[in-house]
Amino acid sequence: MKPVRSLARVMLSGVFVVSGVRNFQNPGRLVPAAKPVTDRVGPLIQQVSPRIPTDTETLVRINSATQLIGGLMLATGKFTRPAALVLAGTLLPTTVAGHPFWKGEPAKRAQHQTQFMKNLGLLGGLLLAAADTEGKPGLRWRAGHRIGHSRRSVQRAVRTARREARIAVRSAATARRLPG
Questions:
Q1: Residue 137 φ/ψ region, left for φ over 0, alpha for ψ in the -120 to 50 degree band, beta for the rest
Q2: CA 166 to CA 30: how far, in whole Å?
Q3: What is the model's pLDDT at position 64?
Q4: What's the pTM value of the predicted model, to 2 decimals?
Q5: For residue 56, what are the contacts with CB-CB under 8 A and spacing of at least 6?
């Protein structure tokens, strides 16, 4: 199953790598569409940290660089689950800003709706990639298994200690009965 997972990750990450490079090199073409979203997000970013830039072009570049790096990580199989979550996070503002089918002229509505639905499909694939443990047990199972293993080890140690205490008590009782 590993070749299928690897191929699927490369195919899923391709759109993020290509658009990340393209948008990082030329962010100006996305600024008009991104401006309404960045105007809403800018004050929130300033509350988190005043040092983070809030101008639209810089935020588009940051989003593009994040998509490029996350796409490369997903494609190479390095930190795939966190990379998929980060890519999902970058896809949300991109989709809302780039494909607002609910407003605008009816002629472009169908095109924006198709692109919006495509991005929802990508989001679904990213969520699957984020949840994929590659056939290995998940963290919850491993923690439960470790707790059960520890509990059994403690129970064995208690049984052994009781058995040795009984032997010691018998030995002491026998030693008291011996003359001398």
A1: beta
A2: 79
A3: 94
A4: 0.71
A5: 31, 34, 35, 38, 39
